[in-house]
Structure of Tricarboxylate transport protein:
Amino acid sequence: MVKGEKEKPLHSLIAGTTAGAVEAFITYPTEYVKTRSQFGGQRESPISIVRSTLQTKGLTGLYSGCTALVIGNSVKAGVRFVSYDHFKHMLADPEGKVSPARSLLAGLGAGVMEAIFAVTPSETIKTKLIDDAKSPNPKYRGLIHGTSSIVRDDGIRGIYRGLFPVSNSRPGQQLPSSITFGIGAIAGLVTVYTTMPLEKVSGGFGLEQRLDSYASW
């Protein structure tokens, strides 16, 4: 790639989504056990959760809600890769170099996009599917049915919230990941708005750079 040339978004998207999907599928059983341990009337050890799941639902039980995380992780990694490349290119100097401070800013911007558009919804849906799957009569028949049911019942906000009552009713438990990411998303929104002037300025520099390049032809 020519120095200063922007990485093709499609390449970043393919690399990110593939890496995210493989990572999510391989590590999902541990994610399942962790999420299960945050729900229920009594605390269970990871071994007892695995044993009871295998006895009642077999090996596939350890992958309940897996589709949501695989898709969410793919989107998450894809958004992160594409956003980071975009912000990094936008913040580069005329020679295509990015200072450590601007590289950090690009990473923060990518993290904000990732949290808002991928992490929070996928974590919320995944957690609700796992919690529903352990009940004797699950009401969700899968990812699509579960997501549509959540949106139908609670609206779009339903995939960004809904776990506060559960955590509040069980003092001493660790906050679910979706709540943590929700708080991070709110903080990310503040970051986006506070850094918008910098993005406007750097965007203007990028436009001038492109105009100069065109004028040299």
